[in-house]
Design a protein that fits this description.
EC 2.4.1.-; binds 2-acetamido-2-deoxy-beta-D-glucopyranose; disulfide bond; 26 strands; Polypeptide N-acetylgalactosaminyltransferase; binds manganese (II) ion; polypeptide N-acetylgalactosaminyltransferase activity; Spore Coat Polysaccharide Biosynthesis Protein SpsA, Chain A; Trefoil (Acidic Fibroblast Growth Factor, subunit A); six-stranded antiparallel sheet; glycoprotein; 2 domains; alpha+beta
């Protein structure tokens, strides 16, 4: 549930989740009914905090002059280096009896090769893929203790066990005060008695909090944070593997500055073979597009020059980070009006930067994350509003993004989405005297506007003129299959995610929120259209909309156009032909000013 994103595939999960009908669950008080006693008197959230030093408890002073030490656990590293076997050293693994069919079934059900996971040790070794300099780094010898909050919903047992063992095996025991597992109302049997027995048999400082009903990621993290007692909160997913010495580099910046929020670098565990590799693009400095999709900005030259040095991160990927408990609550924790999942990483990131904090990525701290297969069936999320994502985003934008909201592609159309009461959030912003969004854009996310100019050429559903019921749709396919057509969303300007396309100033046609660009790989007849990572090189990913002829042209020469094959009810690319009605398309929103300025056609 890392945002993830960044996470190509995890992002897909977002919309997979969003496609399913959802059950509405969010009045704050209902949500927290089971925690109500605490909620009321624990509401330190909106107490005014004054100066930064008020945040420091008497018994915890930063010790910048303190001795440093080498926190590596060399014995554990040595033992790990000797391990051999399936998946050891983070190598790609394969079961002898595995078939493609079985793999697909597993991917649908679990999002990864669950049987393979069962055959890989929960204590498996990982390669040390940190920048070489990290091996020599020393950190303060006195570091604050952490509460690790690991939330899960129907997590696969061996994957959850591996997450726990990796954290415990690779953290200095004296730094972990407790590990709090938050169960977001799982219904798989193994997560009840068997999990409790396993924990009792293997760990001493791990406890489980069970939510009384499905509440979603945001509420689950909040419940974990309320239960935590250590000075620092570390939020993790339940399908991760912590690498050597991951914890001290996360904690030192916070020990030195309580308003520092720190993210590890997230590596990737392949869902088919459990191979560990470095996440691409490297570094994940996070940001957002005009749609408020999470995107990854390139590293800055100084980040590349000093690869082990922490660097500023405008927006967290979302799933894995460390923050001082007090700062978290000073910021009000997560906005409790956010439903289920989505937008919370923007909310927290904006608050951190605008309200006196800073956020860094730490290249010496590595945690690997299983990015699930796009085949994964949507979670059994309680039904309700299908547009909770937009509701969340709009809530965040309304409170934090000031005048920038006018640039958000869908904002005007989202006018009728009720975002609920924002009084508390706005009061918090004024109480903490937070800076403006303009300040944030200038000083922190300074390359967002350049990379993602605050306007687009066209966006929304792409509707065929030959058959007005048909719109271009991702069809929930794996990226291994071409996109297709589906019955159009009711609102063409602001459709559901699988039909929400954007034609960008980079001449890419991409889907809101998943960083995948439409690409045509051949010049043959009936060329299929694929979703592929955006390469910014034009050519097979170049698209241009001629709003007069309504042709949607691929490649700079404008000779090939998107076409619906009415018999097959599919989309392909063929030589342009204005007289072919099936080659003509409406797009929900078009910016004529921008489209008129086309120098390519
Ligand atoms: C494949 O082998 C593994 C152990 O080697 C076993 O646990 C699993 O059940 C087998 N799967 C099938 C489909 O036979
Ligand atoms: C994994 O390591 C822990 C010690 O950290 C040990 O208690 C446990 O038995 C090991 N499990 C396996 C399957 O190797
Ligand atoms: C944390 O939750 C557990 C289980 O619900 C409860 O027993 C404990 O009192 C809680 N601790 C805090 C500090 O809230
Ligand atoms: C479309 O369907 C026809 C007949 O149903 C078939 O011959 C043709 O190969 C199909 N084309 C594509 C691109 O799938
Ligand atoms: C263009 O489309 C029209 C209408 O479908 C068709 O009659 C004509 O043959 C097409 N022209 C070419 C060159 O394919
Ligand atoms: C028009 O295009 C040119 C170059 O193609 C670009 O520099 C300019 O900013 C564009 N103007 C508008 C209004 O989009
Ligand atoms: C349309 O594009 C122009 C640049 O060509 C931009 O200045 C303007 O803000 C855009 N309008 C909208 C509504 O996005
Ligand atoms: Mn995740």
């Amino acid at each position: 549930m890392l945002r993830s994103n960044l996470e190509l595939i995890a992002m897909l999960t977002i919309f997979i989740i969003s496609w399913s009908a959802l059950f509405l669950l969010y009045s704050v008080f209902n949500l927290y009914a089971p925690f109500t006693n605490k909620t009321i008197d624990l509401d330190p959230i909106f107490q005014p905090y004054g100066r930064a030093q008020d945040l420091l408890p008497a018994d915890f002073q930063p010790r910048p002059s303190e001795e440093k030490r080498d926190w590596h656990d060399y014995k554990a590293m040595e033992q790990d280096a000797k391990r051999v076997g399936l998946g050891e050293q983070g190598k790609a693994a394969k079961l002898k009896n595995s078939t493609r069919d079985l793999q697909l079934k597993l991917n649908e059900k679990y999002g990864f090769n669950a049987l393979l996971s069962d055959s890989i040790s929960v204590n498996r070794s990982l390669p040390d893929i940190r920048p070489p300099n990290c091996k020599k780094k020393l950190y303060l010898s006195v570091l604050p203790k952490v509460s690790i909050i690991l939330i899960f919903y129907n997590e696969y047992f061996s994957v959850l066990k591996r997450s726990l063992h990796s954290v415990i095996n690779r953290s200095p025991p004296e730094l972990i005060k407790e590990i709090i597992l938050v169960d977001d109302y799982s219904d798989r049997d193994h997560l009840h008695k068997p999990l409790e027995d396993y924990i009792a048999g293997h760990f001493t400082n791990v406890r489980i909090i069970r939510l009384p009903r499905r509440m979603g990621l945001i509420a689950a993290r909040t419940a974990g944070a309320r239960n935590a007692t250590a000075e620092i909160l570390v939020f993790l997913d339940s399908h991760i593997e912590a690498n050597h010495n991951w914890l001290p580099p996360l904690l030192e910046p916070i020990a030195l500055n309580k308003r520092m929020v720190v993210c590890p670098i997230i590596d990737s565990v392949n869902y088919n073979n459990f191979e560990l590799s470095e996440f691409r693009p490297k570094g994940h400095r996070g940001a957002f597009t005009r749609d408020l999709a999470y995107v990854i900005l390139g590293l800055l030259p100084e980040n590349i020059k000093f690869p082990s040095k922490p660097y500023k991160n405008p927006v967290m990927m979302g799933g894995l980070f460390a923050i001082s408990t007090q700062f978290f609550w000073e910021l009000g924790g997560y906005d409790e009006g956010l439903d289920i999942y989505g937008g919370e990483q923007f909310e927290l990131s904006f608050k951190i930067w605008m309200c006196g904090g800073e956020m860094y990525n730490v290249p010496c701290s590595r945690v690997a994350h299983v990015f699930p297969s796009p085949h994964k069936k949507p979670y059994n999320v309680p039904a309700g509003r299908s547009n909770y994502l937009f509701k969340n985003y709009k809530r965040v934008a309304e409170v934090w993004m000031d005048g920038y909201t006018k640039y958000i592609s869908w904002y005007y159309e989202a006018g009728d989405i009720d975002v609920g009461d924002l009084t508390k959030q706005k009061a918090l912003r004024s109480k903490l005297k937070c800076k403006s969004f303009e300040w944030y854009l200038k000083n922190v996310a300074f390359d967002v506007i350049g990379g993602y100019p605050p306007f687009m050429y066209a966006s929304g559903a792409i509707q065929n003129l030959g058959d007005a019921n048909m719109c271009v749709d991702v069809l929930r396919h794996d990226f291994l299959q071409p996109i297709g057509l589906y019955t159009c969303a009711e609102n063409l300007v602001f459709p559901q995610l699988p039909q929400f396309w954007t034609l960008t100033p980079h001449w890419e046609l991409y889907m809101h929120n998943n960083f995948m660009c439409l690409e045509v790989r051949t010049l043959k007849r009936n060329a299929p259209v694929w979703q592929k990572p955006c390469h910014r090189k034009g050519g097979n990913q170049f698209w241009n909309y001629d709003y007069k002829s309504r042709l949607l042209k691929n490649r700079e020469d404008g000779k090939r156009c998107l076409e619906m094959l009415p018999l097959n009810k599919t989309v392909v690319v063929n030589a342009c032909n204005k007289s072919n009605i099936y080659m003509r398309w409406n797009i929900g929103f078009i910016n004529r000013t921008a489209l008129q300025n086309i120098s390519y056609t």
